[in-house]
Queue: 3 jobs
Job 1
Amino acid sequence: MKEWEAVIGLEIHVELATASKLFCGCSTAFGAEANTQVCPVCLGLPGHRPILNRGAIEYAIKASLALNCDITPQTTFDRKNYFYADLPKGFQISQFFYPTGTNGYIDVEVGDRVRRIGIRQIHVEEDTGKLVHLGDIASSPYSLVDFNRAGVPLIEIVTQPDIRTAGEARLFLQKLRSIIEYTGVSDCKMEEGSMRCDANISVRPPGSATFGTKTELKNMNSFRAVQRATEYEIERQIDVLSHGEAVIPQTRHWDEAKGITVAMRAKYLATDYRCFPDPNIIPMDNDPGWVESIRQSLPELPDARIRRMVEEHGLPGYDAETITSSRDLADFYEATVNLYNEPKVVSNWIMGEVSRCLNAAGKKLAETPLTPRRLAGLLQLIAKGTISGKIAKGVFEDMFASGQDPEAIVQEKGLVQIADTGELGSLVTNVLAANPKSVADFKAGKEKALGFLVGQIMKETRGKANPQLVNQLIRERIEGM
Amino acid sequence: MSLLQDLRATSLLKLLKAREITAEEITAAVLGKISEVDKQINAYITVTGEQALAQARQADRALARGGDIPPLAGVPMGIKDNICTAGVKTTCGSLMLAGYTPHYSATAVERLGQAGAVMAGKTNLDEFGLGNTNKTSYFGATRNPLDPARMPGGSSGGSAAAVAAGEASFALGTDAGGSIRQPASYCGVVGLKPTFGLVSGYGVIDFAPSLDTVGPLTLDVQDCALVLQAMAGRDPLHPMTEGAVAPDYSSFLGRDIRGLKIGLVREYFGPEIAPGVKSRVLAAAEKLDQLGTIVEETSLPHAAYAAAAYLVISTAEAFSNLSNFDGVRFGHRTGGQDLHNMYRRTRFEAFGPDLRQKLIFGALVLGAGHYEEYFVQAQKIRTLIKRELKESLRRYDLLLTPATPDPAPALANDDSLAMRNQDMCLLPANLAGLPAITLPCGSLDNLPVGLQFMAAPYAEGLLLQVACALEQQLARPWA
């Protein structure tokens, strides 16, 4: 049985979160009615002139810096010429000759090793329109085109062929998304298409200096899909080669439902895009001072943040990584810790209740009434003994749903913990009288029986009794019998 | 109305201000002239008579109210039909856009409208502006009003013919490789190609954005200053105008030209230039000398390569720039079995053979394996020519050349190589983005002969100043 090594390179398109398009003032907002965010420029009407959106270049430089790239001294644009129904001008304005960023990398933790995945280049280009079909493309009697997306700024991130497994591809993508999300230049939503990934895959005998014949995978709409599709394609190629056949260079489509890749079109004739500098766009100097100010504006990136959380907050590495994987969550964590300085407690709550409720509701933090002040308030109520940890979970759910302050919920629902020895004392008397067997068991040394008796009190008080206090009262009472 | 012999804007404005004529009368006269001669000349693709009369009446009301009179109030103009006009067909002389009506106007048109000018119609041109004969228009060739057996030149041939025939007071053209200046010269009118970036190109259906500019064709230099003034200056819709500087051009007219240095470009007085043309341009140089300028011979050694560089760059840009004409969203469409078949059929049917040949050439020079060999080389030549002209214009205030090697050729002339030569003196200004003006300087066999001045970027004032001084020394048909 021959061994094989896979060689994977990724091409990731990320939509930049600018308010307007790359070469006109049209809105980039997602989800508008078809062809309502268009103008002569992005429709390619005769006589149009592109006007470069400097903000998009700033975003591209920001992303490039975050991915450790060198920045080209001048922003230039070129035309990539081809005909397609979603391409209004008959050419796409892109950076063919001088990409904004080159020669970058991301460090990805794979198991206990760190793999450095090279980034060949990051270039800016305009998105195309979107084709809409009745049913699927093959059987639809027509194609409709929505040009709302045409002209939306994208960056295309091209990696070196440094990735070796499907798992690495997924980890790389997750890390990439996290970094881009931190920079704020994109929301990186794969499901809305603001982040799209294609993979170039080939296999070769391990240690071989040359590459095998590659195929290009498209239509992977989630991290999981990238991993599954890549896995499948590697296996498929190994299978083909093991049977003495040759891999055909082609573009293949990932069929999510069937879990297979399907040939779309042959690649043997390389398309000639006849790229040349766009005569309508004046080259713009990327002034070193400007680039430096963009570098200064970069937020702390995930790696540095994880290090700080571990070193300064004393969080376990796992906690730090989980929390930093989303900037929202990490920002929320830090703001909460600023108000309630118990990092591990806050981390437990964020990885526990907060994440659980967010997942269940399918929402982002910003879409909920949850605030660091409210969470910190809740944790302080526990610390002061006003409510128990168990009651707190219920309060949290209320808070999550209604947006009320935890103090108000506790007051309103009468959830203040009963820590009055007099009140609890009479409850203890009743419970002990009603459960003579448990009392006897405890006396006989069965510690478990104590748990049962405490539980009875908690039940009576609907969880409001201070459990430590109840525990102590029962012990004293039985020992005094 | 035939009393209206002098259609110069300055003359018309005098009559209007003196209440000796109304804008409506002027427009009616011009429309009358169009219906009288345009069947033969074919200067216009679309005549906007009703709209023009309405605009003229509006101008009359403004004049009656008094106060500030807009600088071109009631002056009738023709607009080259590759310049967008809201609500008026803009065909580019092509079947591709034969039915196309844009919903917005080019900035240049907007500004002329604000200056009070009245649009008489849209003028004929070589298909999409690629040509210098006006014979490649889908709407038929334009004839030279001075001799209908001759061509008016192109691609702004309709604009030049309209002005020369009295079918407009002035017209707008576009010039990517002599397309204003060559027909102006053939038709005996003044043509100005402004500095690249002085006049907004927003709304101009150009084929070579790095070369193309909008400019006026007028009856004299004073009108040229007036029309340029109305259009020039920054336009947020066209970033190329970011550095535009537009001084008061009229203030340059009549200024002393003594002591200005004028370089006579040796390379443009060679065997390609008809002896009769040469002698008339040299006679004009003699007049300039008498007027106190210092005229010296100078050289532009790389000028000889301008035509080759222009051919490569202009067709490459055209190949790409005309790719939006795919039959999908506007313009002509020929159905096909599938998308790519539809593209092929649409573009084959709706583009004329001459244009198709140029687009194919452009695709070729950008193709894999040819890009370095042709396109990159052409850009290098362009850089050399730019540098050479810059250097030369440090030593001279203006450069002087003939406008064209010959007067207007016969309409039947099909020698395409000889025709290409007709732009030889004009191309360097496009490659270098410099302003250049042509004006008539005599006649040969009853056909006008033109000369050209080039100047440094944004030195239109100087160009107009010298052109005006020279013009006053030359015979003027309306004097």
Job 2
Amino acid sequence: MTARVVSLGAAHQNVQELLPWFVMGTLDDDDRATVEQHIEGCAACRGEIAWHQQMHNANIAQPLARDADRAFAALRARLPGSLQPRPQAGWLSSALEWWRMQQPWLRWSFALQPLAIAGLAVALLSGVGRSAEDQGAFHALSRPADAAARLVVVFSPQATQADMRRVLLANGAHIVDGPTAADAYVLSVATDRAEQALRQMRTEHSVLLIQSLEAERVH
Amino acid sequence: MLRRLGRSEQEAPRNSVNIEDVALIARVVAGDLRAFETLYRSYFPRLTRFLERMTRRPEMVEEILNDTMFVVARNAHKYNHASKVSTWIFAIAYRKALKALRDVNDPVDTNGSLDDLLGPDNQEPKDELLQLQLRRVLGEAVEALSANHRAVIELTYFHGEGYREIAEIMGCPVETVKTRMFHARRRLKALLPGTMEDLL
């Protein structure tokens, strides 16, 4: 009799311990069968089931609202090297993925484009269609080719503004830049007058130094 | 009154989730940052809730969570498929939480007093407020439990873990899990005001 009471007490205790997971449906089949068999005749356990159900439904407190983006950003910098972004691989894989998405004809045109560019570059470098005189000549992009020549001039310290004005007018020149740190001015002269202007200005007392900036074209 | 889901009914979605998680872990091992971010965002709400309830220290939660997911990232190759991915991750989170609590000398096995948590206004709640206060008082009663008891409560009722999974997470025998739950229940009975206990 005593042994039977102890056994029943142990069974009741065992079922009581299983009830939370019975309510949650997370028991395996054997445990669930044990509980179901016991609760048919045990009012105390049926009462406990209601309590566990209420615990589950109560859901207690809701967690605080948290910013997953910010939290992940904080972790990201600490991640192991294998999970750190690899720009080179990422760029390459992105490019390959983009390439695979293109139409075949477009892929051909993209493939031929570098060849065309290379051909043009070779033609330019080999000087095809250009005179020897043109080669090496400098053309500023801001002015038409052959429109004017550039001279650099340094006036003597005694030269007055009137002297400078007279020299410039006499030679059809005008100042386009300067004075530089060495008190030099850059003059612009029509190409066909550049050589004569150069010679003429070298004779002027008010001119210390005059030189062409386009030596190969203006002598 | 009580609808119990059959184990097979509950297992199907869980298995599906676990298969997805296993696939993500495999991609993380291969160095896929996007897979890791997906896993992180998937576990973020569950882990924050678990850690908040277990530690009662909201200010520590994100740090413990990130420490947990850092270990997941670093040791993804060590996941051995013996348990569900969620069990593996929660086990890491549980150990990290225990360590964090010990670092701040917060006892993990000692129960607190509900009187410390309830203010004088809460000692004799009015009848009309009982239902509204039930959830809060119950939450406060759970907070008065030890960290280990809170972890069992949280994993059982709010994360749907079986006692075997909880034993894996907490690194203890299944009998210990059952005993902790049983004592947590007894402790709650003692902590809750009589009117509240009657409602439950």
Job 3
Amino acid sequence: MTINEIQDELIEEFELFDDWEGKYEYIIDLGKKLPKLADEHKTEENIIKGCQSIVWLNAYLEGDKLIFEADSEAIIVKGLVSMLLKVLSGHTPEEVLKADLYFINRVGLSSHLAQTRSNGLASMVKQMKAFALAFQLIEENK
Amino acid sequence: MLDIQKIRADFPILEEKINGKDLVYFDNAATTQKPLPVLNALANYYGHYNANIHRGIHHLAEKATSAFEASRKTIQKFLNAKYTEEIIFTYGTTDGINLVAQTYGRAFLKEGDEIIISTMEHHSNIVPWQMLCEQNGCVLKVIPINDNGELILEEYEKLLSEKTKFVSVVHVSNSLGTINPVKYIIEKAHEVGAKVLIDGAQATSHLNIDVQDLNTDFYVFSAHKLYGPTGMGALYGKKEILEAMPPYRGGGEMIKEVTFEKTTYNELPYKFEAGTPNIADVIAVKTAIEYIEELGKENVAAYENELLAYATEQLSKIEGLKIIGQAKEKVSVISFVIDGIHPQDIGVILDQQGIAVRTGHHCTQPLMKRFGIPGTSRASFAVYNTKEEIDKLVLGIEKVKKMVL
């Protein structure tokens, strides 16, 4: 599936919720299901700056696809980052760089994008794109 | 007895709906909401007598100047300072501490001199002193606390010596609510000849402040935690100390005479007030103080203590919830953690229910480290809060537990 197809699917899933509780229970559930990040990747460099809770993000290339893995000590943040992984992990660095993450607005989570330092969804997206750019440059220079 | 419903009607923001729910505002230790008279004072100044103060000879300038200086008088009485010129307007508590560190500190502290702060200080009462230590080679010493969140006074006394030149401690902890025995701390510091600054940011809305009785050398606070506007605060300093201190920022207002060869400085308090000050907010703080005094500080404190006791009782019933900061002397601040739930998750889910609390380290990272936690959730109560709102918080927390655990 393309990044946009995954986004559209997420938007459809969120349309089923008619209140905040359902929506947040879903996000919490995603957070609980996200596999734990191996301790060796919970390094200082992998911590995303600008979040109230600690969020670790790791990335590596598998073939030409960029794979992200992440973890957080807060469950809602973990759910949010899990959604980002769902959308962006497994695509080429170029696709990740070009991605327009319209689903965040459409599923009603844009308040989490605000630069309040509290949820740091914006910082996560920024960090994922930074990884994509770094891997793209490495590939180009090979 | 206070008529809380009548008080609530004075705060238009309390009618706001958050995520479709009635706002429950429990973030008062961060900033309090502003009553209508304060909002009106701001609008009235800008709408009817906005002018730059001092030196203007026209009608508006004179009117603005006298309102501005009337505020200084009000703050003098509010703190029971001896002289009006002992009140310096600042941008807030942080600004006041920086002013003292960079003027008194740079002029009178030297290498090897010791500055004492405490474990429960806000970053704004840590960093300015660390900066001074880097500049002057002073040494920072820290008073430890016990598990209840109280200063260990025996340890404080052990830290005191002839090397101690300055003690800067918080009157009321923003994270824990602890009221520190500042009068005793000041007395002990003076015995070794040290000067003392008290950070009153969290104290002025809850306690009666008498700087002469405390015999403190400096006292700082912010208006916005006192039902007044943001960006405005005051520094109290003993007159003879302020007079001996070099000026802080240079610019207009703080000078007597300027030539390219030499500038002479204005007298107190203007020596420390360079540039056009925050006129509107200074004027409005008078209204805020009058508002509180009309309610009666004792009445406010009694009511807030009632809310604190009720909240402590109700929150203690929640399984897995632990209150951080259980000092005997406390203001209406409750910090708590819940087993297995990150404070941020608590904050986000409470916000969905219209309840505003603060989560995180509350700008007291060393204190959080002392308790071995990443942060807390903090509910802090003001005079317009109610027991019904505390009941909503309890239900809200139960919902957090249900959803997350």
